[in-house]
Target: DUF4440 domain-containing protein
Amino acid sequence: MKSVFTALFVLALSTVSWSQASSPEQRIAVLSKTKWEWMADKQIDSLAILFDDRSRFVHMSGTWGKERELEIIESGSIHYKQADVHDVVVEVFGNTAIVWNRITLIAHVRGNEVSNEFTVTEVYQQRAGEWKMLDLTFSSVRDTHALEH
Model:
């Protein structure tokens, strides 16, 4: 029960930031940033609401669905400790949004702390006024990789 209240509280706080963002692109950028925080804090209830039931997650070691991603985060087999976001590009196409983040990810993976540079592609779809994540794909890049705006 406590986790449900925590998830609702976090969603309420996100809504305040969300409502202060004026454009759909800004709202999606805020949602993406919030998602990284939820992943770092293992906020499974909030992530379960955000991730579509058929969402896919593409990592360096494999591709899987929502339930496996939530299990990985909850168990800590991958702990997304910190995502330093260096650049964000958001494009909205009707009810679909694509986010490209250039990040340095510090994670704890199978007992080892690692730091990697990635461009992360996120795909969201708006349904009944709510955004759902459909895809999150990590692409390994050099630290000189740039996102064109």
Notes: The chain is about 35% helix and 45% strand. The longest strand covers residues 78-93. The two ends are 43 Å apart (CA to CA). Helices lie at 2-20, 24-40, 44-50, 66-75.
